[in-house]
Write a structure and sequence with these properties.
- This protein has 137 residues and is of the alpha+beta class.
- It has a domain of 67 residues: Thrombin, subunit H (Beta Barrel), CATH 2.40.10.
- The protein has one helix and seven strands.
- The longest helix has 18 residues.
- It is elongated.
Length: 137
């Protein structure tokens, strides 16, 4: 009987301690900073962390690369008050509260690369297009 009472008390103690919120210390530090051209309104991060989209007042979106360099500048034709990026990174959603609208902006990433020194066939200087299908299974 005594062992059973101890087992029940121990189980009750484990159950109650698991239900209590755990606290932990959080250590943090600033690891980067960007000087902006205007007040920021919203930020969206690509799922892979390669790009950060910063919306500024007036509808300017600045796209930063992983190292904090400016990759692109998008000037929206309306005053957006929020942005979100699709999980695949090919759509930017921009909201406008006063207009009661969400605009969907298609994004195509163009990667330039040099073929200098690579073997080739055909006319020199001919235009080459490479299509990448990210949803191929």
């Amino acid at each position: 009987m005594n062992n059973r009472l101890i087992a029940v008390a121990a189980a009750l103690l484990v159950f109650l301690s698991a239900a209590l919120p755990a606290t932990a210390a959080l250590e943090w530090s600033v690891v980067g900073e960007w000087n902006l051209e205007g007040p920021p309104v919203d930020v969206a991060l690509s799922q892979d962390g390669a790009r950060t989209f910063v919306l500024l007042e007036g509808g300017l979106v600045i796209v930063y690369g992983a190292r904090g360099t400016v990759e692109e500048r998008l000037t929206l034709d309306f005053d957006a008050d929020g942005i979100a990026l699709s999980p695949t990174g090919d759509r930017l959603y921009a909201t406008s509260g006063p207009e009661k609208k969400v605009r969907v902006i298609s994004l195509d990433y163009i990667q330039e690369f040099s073929l200098e020194g690579s073997p080739s066939k055909g006319r020199e200087g001919a235009t080459v297009a490479v299509a990448v299908f990210s949803d191929f299974q």
